[in-house]
Amino acid sequence: MAFLTLVRKDGEFMSVKRIVVVMVFVAALAGCSKPKVVPNGAISVNGEWILKNELASVEAAMQNDPQNSPSALFGSDGSMLKKMIAQQVVGQKLLLAEAHSRGIKPDTTMVAKNLESIEKRFPDKATFERELTAAGQSRETLKKQIMEGVMLDSLMKSILISKDSIPEAEVKSYYDENKAKFVSPPKFRLSLIMISVPAKATESAKSLARKKADDAYAQCKAGKNFADIAKKFSDGPGADAGGDIGWFENGSMNPIFDKPASGLKTGDISEVVQAEPGFIILKRTEEKAADPASYEKVRMQITMSLQMKKRAELVSAHVNEIYAKSKVVYADTSYKPTTEMLAKLKAK
After folding, report:
1. Burial class (CB in 10 A: 0-12, 13-18, 19+), 152
2. Cα–Cα distance between 261 and 189 in angstroms, integer?
């Protein structure tokens, strides 16, 4: 588990590691004199060594986490990923040292609760232990990581306490300057008649299905009620509801449906379209224009976003202050950040 600064996504805290990493990069570019290197040592943080295999384990874990994977920043550039992961671990070490210096102790009840929650994700204890081993972990190392995460959580609370308030005027100003971000796109509602054709259907069966679809289409064009025809002929989604399949945005549907639907106006009926599932007929039944969200509707969303930004700035400033007092040495310079990397992070 590579915690850097952990902030929960439930409204209390969320991850601000990217900004912290930017600040770590700024200080790291200066470099320091080298201490005596230990076997497999990659980076020394105030005399405590980060080993290469530790960094490799963190990289493997992060690459398997689509939400936190650094590939979102650097794509397939392996050297950049390696450097960024190293900085996350450096940041973690610095913040853990800060937590220890403040006398912060892990909440043992919270640690036990989190460990139990993880274990319950597995069908039994044996499976849990086996998966830990496969990941190069043990129950004790996992517990240690959870303890560190709880300590970092407590540290963040102490740094950010009483600093979450965002003035109403600032929230309103952000809304007024960014109204385009809070507009729902136009939508349309569709009904469907589908005559399914099995993948291994004979030519005779396909012909019969086509004839049935043509018959349904002819009745629609003759002015008969589309919903009644859908109930009678269709074997696709929404058939029992008269063919209604709900609301869509342009480009949001499967191309099979999107192309014939995009050219329709309200009340229009498409021709019979041959598609992978069979033959389909679409009707656009309603439309909704672009809908700007009111300030009251998005006020809380904006407030939380501005709070997260403020927290990130406070944490990054704090980490920069810690780094200035620390000695971080790269025994393996392949982990050392570059100005190019810093530029990419700032651009995100």
Report:
1. buried
2. 10
Residue 65 has pLDDT above 80, yes or no: no
Q: How far apart are CA 125 and CA 205, in angstroms?
A: 54
First to last CA, the chain: 24
Helix segments in 66-179, DSSP class H: 71-74, 78-101, 108-119, 125-134, 139-160, 168-177
Cα–Cα separations (whole angstroms), residue 226 to 112, 221, 262, 296: 60, 9, 19, 40
Using DSSP, state whether 54 is helix, strand or coil: helix
What is the model's pLDDT at position 194? 93
Give 3-state DSSP helix, strand, coil % of the chain, rounded to 5. Answer: 55, 15, 30
pLDDT at residue 1 in the model: 36
